[in-house]
Every structure is written in C-alpha cells, then in structure tokens.
Amino acid sequence: MDPMTTSRKASLSRALSLVLVLSACAFPAAGAETVPLSIGDAVRMAVEKNLGLKVATYSPAIAETGIRKARAIYDPLLSAQANHQGSNLQAAPQSFFVDRQRAFTFDASISQLLPSGATTSLSFNNFWSKDNFGLPTSRFAQPQLTLSFSQPLLQGLGREVTERGITTADDATDSALAGWNQQALNTAATARNQYLVLVKARESLATRQASLTLAREVQAQNEARVNAGVLAAYQLQDSRLGVLQARKNLLDAERAEKDAVDQLRTTLHLAEGTAVATTPPPFEPSDVSEADALRTATLRRPDIVSARVAVRTAEFNERVSRNLALPSLALQGSGGITGLDTSYGDAIGDMGSAKYPNWSVGLSFSVPLGNHSARADVAANRLIASQARTQLAATEESATLEVRTALRALSSAREQIGVTEQGVTAAEVLMASYLKRQQLGLATTKDVLDVSASLTLARENLTAARADYQTAFTNLWKATGELLDRQGIRIEGTAIASRTRKGTP
After folding, report:
1. Pick from 242, 236, 207, 210: which is nearest to 222 by CA?
2. Rounded distance, CA 240 to CA 217, Å?
C-alpha cells in the first residue's frame, strides 16, 4: 500500500478519535485548581451560593415574624393602677373646722381576647378612705372583684374575623415562600443552561481542533506530494487557506469556551482561575405525558401558587369586610362581689362571704348612618377578589402554554438528534470517499477541505441538538416547577421559614 495513503488514513482516524477525547477534556489552565462538576452539582452549587437567592431567603423569614406578631392578639393584658388623693376643705363658712379626706385606690386587671371575638376581663379594685369626722364611716376599706365580658353578635363575631391579621400574615409568608421558590427555579435553570453552554462549547472546541488537525495533515501531505512532483504547487494555497480557516474557527471556539467558563464560574461563585471539569449530562427519556406535566405545573409552579394565595387572601378580605359592614351589636355583662369594713383584712373577709354581689347584663348597639365607608370597603374587596381570580386564570393559561411549548420543543429536539446523527454518519462516509478520490486525482484539495468543513458542521449540529435536548428538559422542568426536585435538591422549609408556624404557641 502507498505509504502516503496509509498516513492519510491514520490522520483521519486520529482526527475522528480526537473529537471524543477533547470533548471530555476540561481544558484546565496550567497550575489551576480543577473542580469536577456534573450538571446536578452545578445546579446545587448555584442554589447554595447564589447571593441574590440568599438575600431573598430573608423575605419569608421576615414575613413569618409577622405571624408571630399577629398572634399577639391572644396575649393576656395585665394592667394596674395606683392612686392616692386627698383634700382639706373648710366645713362651712365662718367655721374653723377643716374636713380632711384621704383616699387610696389600687386597681389591677387582666383581660383576654377569645377566638369568638369576645373580650373577658377579671379586675380587682381596692378603695381605702378616711376623714376626720370621727364617724363610723370615717374610715373604711372597700375591695371589689369583678368578672366582665363583651361578646359581639354581629360585627366582629367569629374566629375568622378575630384572626384576620394572623390569616393575612400567614398568606404573606406563603407568598414570600413562593417568591423564593421562583427565584430558586430561575437560578437553577440559569446554572443548568450555562453548564450546557459550556459542554456545547467544549464539544465544539474539540470538533474544531480535530478539523484543524486534519487540515494540517492535508497540508503536510500536499507539501510532500508537491515535493515528489505528483501535485501541482498551486494546490498548496488551498490547503494553506484551509489551515488558516480552521485556526480562525478554533480561536473563535476557544474564546466561546472561555466565556462560558467565566459565566458558569461567576454563577457558582468559584474563585478566579478555577478550572471546571464538565461531563455531558446523561440522556433523559422524552416520554412525558402532557396531562401529567400540566397537573404538576398546577401544583408546583411558584407563580400559580402565589396567584392562588392572592385569590385566597382577596376572598378572605371580602368576607371580613362584609362582616365589618354589619352594625355593631354586643352582649355585655359583669358580675362581682364587694367587701366593706373598717379594716382591709375584715373587708376581704366580708367580700369572701359573698353577701354583697353585683351584676349587670345588657346590649350595646351602634351603626354609622349610611355606613358608606364600610360599604365602599366591601365593594373594593369584591373587585380585588375578582381581579385576583382573573389573574390566577391568566397565570394558569400562560403556564399551560409554556408547558405545551416546552413539550413540543422537547419532542422536536429529540427528533433532531436522530437527524443530526445521520448527518454525521453521511458526512463521515462522504469524507472518506473524497479522501480516496483525492488519492486517485478525482478531487482537489479544496474539495476535500469543503467536505471536511461539512463534516465539522454536521458534528457541531449534533452537539447543538444534544444541548438543545437537555435545554428543552430545563425549560420543561422549569415550566412545571419541578426543576429543583429533578436535580435532587431538597429545601427544608425550616431553612427558609417554619412550615409548622400554624399552631405555633
């Protein structure tokens, strides 16, 4: 066999194998620390280290403090008051007798709001009085223990109205959590896509490196054939141009690879100069049910969750405003016992006998004439609830469109892989054919280089199709809201805001 033919075949074999070798290479800088990353590692690192996401983590935690603040309505209120007063008065005109009166009071009470809207209080009042008249009543103590309550019967009746602040704060926390999840999804999708861009850039770099290797082999063989007198010298110009074009393409690929590395390194907050070793992601089956994807999106998408929380809040506010538009009618009552004696101790004993009880019961009613402010609130909250329901419908409609678009893109990308694989096979066969033709003098150097460029393009198309296929999964999982789960990321609720906040004492 012709030694030149053997050399040409060996060069082609090396060029083909170089694609596979270089595509797995991370191209690390000399002396740089290399961090091996899978696509899942990159997504997890982005979620853990993203500063914007760390800032957003505070929002649910801050919102949760609003729940604890709103629950303070059930904190018992303890109050106390002490007062000492006195007077010196002239008993009568032209009288030298001075009426000296002294009184001391000490009152303490504790009140508690109940879920029904009722307010109860227990008060203990102490009254001491003395004067200088010298009568049996000139010195006495009068302690009194009273239990009172006030229960709304119309406006303010019920747990829903009583705990409106708690419910609103709880919804605000759920909304903040949904906002955090949305930002986490965006961060994960960005990191995943940037990883895929880097993998694509490196595979393209490997392909163009192989193309340059082949162009140089053709140039070397042409020079040998010209020196042997079996090839016209002008064909050296074609091979030189082929090498220059391949070098230019390689430089573009190197620049794109470095840009992709810098972008991913910034997203993952890696130190400057850190080399990243990548691995092409595994092939994922594309048999995704549209019904399942839409169902998942309805349950998992943060924007739908947030819109649903907004509807819940708006409808709740509408119900509360209707209650607050009712007249104020309250059942009020109290009961107690009183003691009376010249000494405080005897007065306490007298109170313990319960000989002198007191009680009261009644109704309190009030309503603004016209009640325009409350009616306006009802109308406004009704409109806000309608707006929220419309927004939810629009969000669900947009999500449905996004999911279906992502599914079509996934199906198309899967088919394009098959097409581009066949294109690479055809281009490789054509390349081998033109190499043989050149040996027989039936093809020029330019023909061989043109076919080589077609082979390079076919390989890059296959690389792009594979990357597009993985990107389609990114878009689909982001559209359904399950990207974090798909990448094995589990975020405990306590890391953002306590999921056991309901019922927390």
Report:
1. 236
2. 11
Taking the CA of residue 163 as centre, how many other CA atoms within 13 Å lie in the half-sphere pointing to its CB?
16
Find how far residue 18's CA is from the centre of its chain.
43
Q: What are the two backbone dihedrals, phi and then psi, of residue 149, each rounded to the nearest 5 degrees?
A: -150, 160
Distance CA 240, CA 234 (A): 10
Q: How far apart are CA 159 and CA 181, in angstroms?
A: 31
CB atoms within 10 A of CB 281: 19
Q: Give, as one character, the DSSP assignment of residue 432.
A: H
Structure token pair of residue 113: 């709001």
Element (H, E) at 147: strand 144-152
pLDDT, one tens digit per residue, over 387-422 is 999 999 999 999 999 999 999 999 999 999 999 999
* 146 φ, ψ (degrees, to nearest 5): -135, 135
Report the alpha-carbon distance of residue 24 to residue 201 in Å, rounded. 11
Q: How far apart are CA 463 and CA 467, in angstroms?
A: 6
> Which two three-digit tokens encode residue 249?
């393409």
- Strand ranges (DSSP E) for 31-76? 34-37
**Per-residue pLDDT reduced to its tens digit, 206-244:** 999 988 998 888 888 888 888 887 777 877 888 888 889
Between CA 269 and CA 254 the distance in angstroms is 22
pTM (2 decimals)? 0.78
All CATH 1.20.1600.10 domain ranges of the chain, comma separated, are 33-67+166-311+386-495
Residue 32 φ then ψ, to 5°? -85, 150
What does the alpha-carbon distance between residue 176 and residue 497 come to, in Å, rounded to a whole number?
Answer: 9
Q: How far, in Å, CA of 505 to CA of 208, rounded?
A: 65
Contact (Cβ atoms closer than 8 angstroms) between residue 160 and residue 319: yes
Q: If you write DSSP's letter for every residue of 294-314 in order, what string do you get? A: HHHHHHH-HHHHHHHHHHHHH
- Side-chain-side CA neighbours of residue 137 (13 Å): 0
Count of Cβ atoms closer than 10 Å to residue 441 Cβ? 9
Environment class of 124 (CB within 10 Å of its CB; exposed 0-12, middle 13-18, buried 19+): middle
Class of domain 33-67+166-311+386-495: mainly alpha
